[in-house]
Design goal:
By secondary structure, the chain is α/β, with parallel strands linked by helices. The protein is built from 31 helices and 33 strands. The chain has a 7-stranded mixed beta sheet, with helices on one face. A 6-stranded parallel beta sheet has the order 30-31-29-28-32-33. The protein has a 5-stranded parallel beta sheet with strand order 18-17-16-19-20, sandwiched between helices. The longest helix is centred in the C-terminal third of the chain and has 20 residues, at 642-661. The protein is globular. The N and C termini lie far apart (72 Å).
Length: 927
């Protein structure tokens, strides 16, 4: 049977799911389709033409290469297709976004046929996705006196690829749709348990919110054909949680517009809003798609006659509605005035939604085109020896004379590209920065690969110090979905230049280590900028930003990222930890104390948390920086003492060496290069040449939070508060309760020790508690299942060497076997301990979950509805988050313990303790 017949069979199968034909990315299938197009009598010719024109993916897919070559034949008259004239062939090439299409256009523009060359040049002037091989051809032709090349370069210098685009409409009519009350996580827009389908955009789109919501959106579109549907988080923040490009892709698929008539299911221009704005990570994806994100502020704090907030019986501010955005409300966005109107009534100012840079993203259909366009304009102007005209909005450069720098301001100033020489930049400045480390994870990696193909990138930027493709999100179950997707992903990323968790050649053992732990290890400079395809890219060295798959692709392809320098909130500590407390409790208490200190306002949201931990090595400090995603911070920076940083770098070196010994380094010796960088940094610190990064003493912060360790007397639990009468207060991570709140009575159905939040010390705590309880009771019996997943293989190897793993094995009823990985997800759990494969496991919720309706107590990060556990008909599922000792004890006794039970159980155990630095972790400003 031919590949085409297989494709037709697949199309029939997709029809039963209400789906259209899957877009074509393979050369072999498209080659057969072209053969059928050339055969005028072929019965499949008409369908083949439609597939060729309207259903082939652009960029650097192998299909795009075949398509571009055939279009070239048509333009040169070597092939004649009645339905595709040479003019139409040029139009199709103009929508292919780079790679093979640019190669063909350059062939034609620099060829001997003057008429064809002129037409090709006209198309090339509209293109921006050119890479070094392309610009080198233009450069060589120009230097050889080619007039067409000169004409193209002059157009690029004027940025005509941008200036000739239509202006943004002055008025945009929207009709509102409330997607939910309270924070809306990306899990609602793109559920984790459907991660396998993300690269199939139409199929994945069917999982957004609910089928009912999709029908309601379609009904609004039918009622208001002249308006765009604006998706809203009422009384909450839109797009919290994981950094999923698939979330905004789904919103655009249902509410946006098609980017190109010749590329299916790639939509742009979504419009989203939230009472409390848009999550920073999600807003980036909105920019990538040329969309609009609005901070609605439609609920405000009620104030008394003295202007003080009115509080309810729980001491929380009472909100009152400033204006309605109820589903079906028609509003008007005025992009010129930057205002939101209901009829003639002005509602709010939208200046932050329509900055000059965001207006460019909207006009260009996304931020990528602007990033590449600016680089192209600069290249052309330099080659022609002229000054490029000011076409794009100038980067905002904010500098305050005499004001010191926060840690993030220092990092951004060091890594800034293309700024005014000698100018010191402060928060609010727009900066293009060099990216040092990039991470791609496996459930968004296929989309990152698609993004790289669509922007015609073929190799990692040489300026990136190191990049890693993980296998952690699909580690739990090696099912047919994983087997179909992951090897293909690993091969692509390995060839692109990343270090990959799985070896496409099968020579080294598959490593399913949690991506954040690996990135934390391969970050060997606290001045580094890290971009990772996951919201928990929150390293405890350097400053790390969780990002969507598109931003990750851009960082891999260009070695750069663009963003404003964020404001910072400084967090310091006073007092002493109680000996029965774990550092995880300090993390939760930080959030609770901050909210109390600022009257319920989350001052962390959208800002950098500069945490002065000082004395904790990177592994343990990561527990804090990791949780800053749940604090809704944009990122975090850990300030370390010199000796602590050296200790962290030595640990990182050893773990990178293990990766080298396994055979994971590539021909560029990336991993060895990281060890060399770590050695250099250690020597700089030891010699005093360049001490550990600290902020200036006179740096300016948005706010300062002092955490009182003396006030933390009980373990602290983050509670989803699933039955709160105020729906907007559920699933927020802001409800932090002490252990005694539960009275030693709340039933626990399953315990989970795992995810990026745990380190080796947590696994040792599990073994120590089991040893203690065995001594006290003679044996250990579990009254609830306990699932344990070490985050990395390195940790297991270290535990084996230290004797802890043997004890864990003794009490486990299941231990993972890499030689026979699970082929299907576990659906039932017994009251025993499970030692699962390193990776995300239950935290991700895409492969395995707790039983519906369970109360789960976990060390993980997410408590969103349906993530770890779904609701049942009898009760709501809930995932409470706590420290390792609380989780272990709860699984053993089947309920949340009392404080006395807890203290007895942890007596003599080495918990993760923390003693604040007695040093002032600042430096003298040089500015």
């Amino acid at each position: 049977m031919s590949i085409y017949k297989d494709y037709i069979k697949e199309i029939e199968e997709r029809k039963t799911q209400g789906l259209h034909p899957k877009p074509i990315d393979g050369a072999e299938l498209l080659s057969e389709i072209i053969t059928q197009i050339k055969d005028s009598g072929n019965p499949d010719r008409a369908d083949s033409l439609k597939f060729f024109i309207y259903n082939t993916l652009p960029g650097t897919t192998s299909a795009a290469g075949v398509k571009a070559k055939f279009l070239k034949e048509i333009i040169l008259g070597e092939s004649v297709v009645e339905e595709i004239s040479p003019a139409f062939a040029f139009e199709l090439l103009s929508h292919m976004k780079g790679g093979p299409s640019i190669e063909v256009l350059l062939d034609l523009a620099l060829g001997s046929d003057a008429a064809i060359a002129k037409e090709a040049a006209t198309v090339l002037k509209t293109q921006v996705f050119l890479y070094e091989a392309d610009t080198t051809r233009l450069k060589n032709a120009y230097e050889s006196g080619n007039e067409i090349a000169k004409e193209i370069l002059e157009s690029y210098t004027k940025a005509e690829f941008f200036t000739q685009l239509p202006e943004v409409a002055e008025e945009i009519k929207v009709v509102t749709y409330i997607a939910g009350e309270g924070d809306i996580s990306t899990d609602l827009l793109s559920p984790g348990n459907q991660a396998h389908s993300r690269s199939d955009r139409e199929l994945h789109g069917k999982c957004m919110i609910t089928p009912q919501a999709q029908e309601e959106i379609k009904a609004l579109q039918a009622q208001h054909p002249d308006a765009s549907v604006m998706l809203i988080a009422e009384k909450g923040t839109m797009g919290v949680g994981s950094s999923r490009m698939s979330g905004v892709n789904n919103v655009a698929l249902w509410t946006g517009k098609q980017a190109s008539p010749y590329v299916p299911f790639v939509n742009i221009a979504p419009i989203v809003g939230g009472t409390n704005g848009i999550s920073p990570i999600f807003l980036t994806t909105v920019d990538v798609t040329g969309g609009i994100g609005i901070d609605l502020k439609n609920w405000v704090k009620k104030v008394d006659e003295n202007g003080n907030p009115v509080l309810n019986e729980n001491g929380e501010p009472v909100l009152e509605e400033a204006y309605s955005v109820a589903t079906g409300t028609v509003l008007t966005i005025n992009t010129k005035e930057k205002k939101l109107y209901n009829g003639d009534k002005e509602l709010i100012d939208l200046a932050k939604s329509f900055t000059p840079q965001k207006m460019e993203f909207i006009r260009a259909g996304g931020s990528y085109a602007i990033v590449f366009g600016k680089k192209l304009q600069t290249f052309a102007a330099q080659l022609l020896g002229i000054e490029a005209p000011s076409v794009f909005a100038p980067s905002k450069e904010i500098s305050h004379e005499g004001q010191g720098l926060t840690a993030v301001e220092k990092i951004f100033n060091r890594n800034a590209v293309g700024v005014t020489p000698g100018k010191v930049l402060h928060a609010g400045s727009d900066v293009r920065v060099k990216v040092n480390i990039v991470g791609s994870q496996d459930t968004t990696g296929l989309m990152t690969a698609q993004e790289l193909e669509s922007m015609a990138a073929t190799v990692i930027s040489p300026t990136v110090d190191g990049a890693y493709q993980s296998g952690c999100h699909t580690a739990s179950v090696w099912d047919k979905k994983a087997q179909a997707n992951i090897p293909k992903l690993m091969k692509f990323m390995n060839e692109f230049g990343l270090i990959t968790a799985r070896d496409p050649k099968g020579e080294y053992h598959a490593m399913t280590d949690v991506i954040h732990k690996v990135l934390n290890d391969i970050t060997v400079d606290e001045w580094a900028i890290i971009i990772g395809g996951d919201s928990h890219t929150r390293m405890s060295k350097g400053v790390a930003f969780g990002a969507d798959s598109g931003t990750v692709a851009l960082a891999l392809a260009t070695g750069e990222a663009s963003m404003p320098i964020p404001e910072s909130v400084k967090v310091t500590f006073k007092g002493n930890m109680k000996e029965h407390m774990d550092f995880r409790d300090v993390v939760h208490a930080t959030q609770a104390q901050m909210l109390k200190q600022f009257g319920g306002e989350n001052v962390f949201q959208g800002r950098i948390i500069e945490v002065h931990i000082g004395t904790l090595p990177a592994d343990q400090a990561f527990t804090f920086t990791d949780w800053t995603a749940e604090m809704k911070a944009k990122a975090s920076i850990n300030i370390s003492e010199d000796n602590t940083l050296i200790e962290s770098l030595e640990i990182a070196k050893n773990r990178i060496q293990i990766m080298i010994d396994k055979g994971m380094d590539n021909h560029n010796k990336v991993l060895q290069g990281l060890i060399d960088k770590a050695n250099k940094r250690i020597e700089e610190i030891r010699s005093g040449e360049k001490p550990a990064l600290t902020p200036d003493a006179n740096a300016k912060y948005y706010a300062e939070v002092v955490v009182d360790l003396d006030a933390i007397v009980e373990p602290m639990i983050a509670d989803p508060d699933v039955n709160n009468e105020d729906v907007s207060k559920r699933y927020t991570h802001d409800t932090i309760r002490d252990l005694s709140y539960y009275g030693g009575e709340k039933k626990v159905d399953l315990g989970f020790v795992g995810s990026c939040m745990v380190h080796k010390g947590d696994l040792k705590i599990v073994s120590q508690m089991l040893r203690n309880l065995e001594k006290q009771q003679g044996k250990v019996e579990f009254n609830a299942p306990l699932v344990v997943a070490a985050p990395t293989y390195n940790i297991i190897d270290e535990l084996k060497a230290e004797g802890d793993w043997e004890l864990l094995e003794k009490y486990s009823a299941f231990e993972f076997d890499d030689n026979a990985p699970k082929g299907e997800a576990r659906t039932e759990y017994k009251n025993v301990m499970y030692l699962e494969r390193p990776g995300c496991n239950l935290c991700m919720g895409n492969q395995e979950k707790a039983a519906k309706g369970d109360t789960v107590l976990a060390t993980s990060t997410r408590l969103f509805q349906g993530r770890v556990v779904e609701d049942s008909e009898r009760k709501k599922g809930e995932s409470l988050l706590a420290s390792t000792p609380v989780v272990v004890l709860s699984a053993i006794i089947g309920r949340i313990p009392s404080i006395d039970e807890y203290k007895a159980a942890v007596e003599g155990i080495d918990l993760t303790t923390f003693v604040p630095s007695i040093k002032e972790l600042t430096s003298t400003s040089a500015h």
